[in-house]
Amino acid sequence: MIEIVGLTKTYGDRRAVDGLDLTIPTGELTVLLGPSGAGKTTVLRCINRLVEPTSGSILVDGVDIATLDPVALRRSMGYVIQNVGLFPDMTVRENVAAVPRMLGWDRRRIAARVDEMLEMVGLDPERYGDAYPRQLSGGEAQRVGVARALAADPPILLMDEPFGAVDPLTRERLQREMRHLQAKLRKTVVFVTHDIDEAVLLADRIALMRDGRLEQHDTPEALWRRPANDFVSRFFGENLGLRVIIRHCLADVTLKPLPHDAGGLPRVDAGVSLKEALAELVGRRARALLVMRDGRPAGVFDFDVLVESLSREDGRARA
Ligand SMILES: Nc1ncnc2c1ncn2[C@@H]1O[C@H](COP(=O)(O)OP(=O)(O)O)[C@@H](O)[C@H]1O
Ligand SMILES: [Mg+2]
């Protein structure tokens, strides 16, 4: 657990962070969201002590990080930033090995770990291991950045707009991979973005910031249903509901029973999100879809099913 208590950081007379209290639960992905200049990056950099607070404190598992050695602290936290910051003169393998090497792991353990990490982020170690950063696409480089941050298996992962610099399609793919990775690894992740869709897709909880202060800290579902104030409603806009349904999948809703003439309906897999299912209804100009589970018809999805599922309280399942 990361506890941020009364955190303030001033630059001259500007308060980048202004008396922030925020608790980040272990094993969850918390998104710091907010307009540019809200103080998100400053908070992240205070957590790994690249920035020292003007006042307030940060505790990790009850220990005030001000009492720890900053270098050791940083090694216990993976850090991924936009444009990655890979070491240009090192190969992909050497980049990923950087922290384990500093920690003094033996060579065989490092080599095995590097291959494991590259495979985990979807890069073939044979093909990419000896490449240099300049030979990679933006998306590949970003994957190496994630592999490098995870290499020493840090309990905490700090990510600052990690997918901000890649094209939209690659970005979506990286976001989906991040989601699967986190479902498996359950790190304590603090993820900074100003992108609402990215936040809604990835977050267990979103901390919405403005002018260095916290406006609301909640699940995306709760931000949608119970915005704390006008700023929160305006920031998320009218269609937050439409965005939130990407978090829920057909397998989690109560479908209509199969009619006897279901054969003519367009088919959709139970693993897709409600958002994709809705897009499918619209795209096919269909009134209903036949939901397939393990290759067998499981029920019918239509607009009534969608509305019914939304009227239930914050069922939080992941598509
Ligand atoms: N090193 C710095 N020197 C002066 N001002 C800074 C510095 N870092 C951040 N700021 C200011 O603090 C505010 C918050 O910045 P930042 O944390 O980068 O916001 P965000 O990541 O939400 O866009 C901004 O007004 C920014 O200009
Ligand atoms: Mg920033």
Describe it for me?
This protein has 319 residues and is of the alpha/beta class. It has two domains: 2-244, Rossmann fold (3-Layer(aba) Sandwich); 248-311, Roll (CBS-domain). It is 37% helix and 24% strand. It contains 13 helices and 13 strands. 37% of the residues are buried. It binds adenosine-5'-diphosphate and magnesium ion. Magnesium ion is lined by residues 40-41, 192.
Q: Which strand-content bin applies to the residues?
A: 15-25%
Which second-level CATH architecture of the largest domain applies?
3-Layer(aba) Sandwich
Residues in helix, %: 25-40%
Please state how the strands of the largest beta sheet are arranged side by side. 6-7-8-3-9-10
Structural class: alpha/beta
Return Rg in Å.
22 Å
The number of domains = 2
The total of helices stands at: 13
The CATH homologous superfamily of the largest domain is called: P-loop containing nucleotide triphosphate hydrolases
Global mean pLDDT: 92
Ligands and ions found: adenosine-5'-diphosphate, magnesium ion
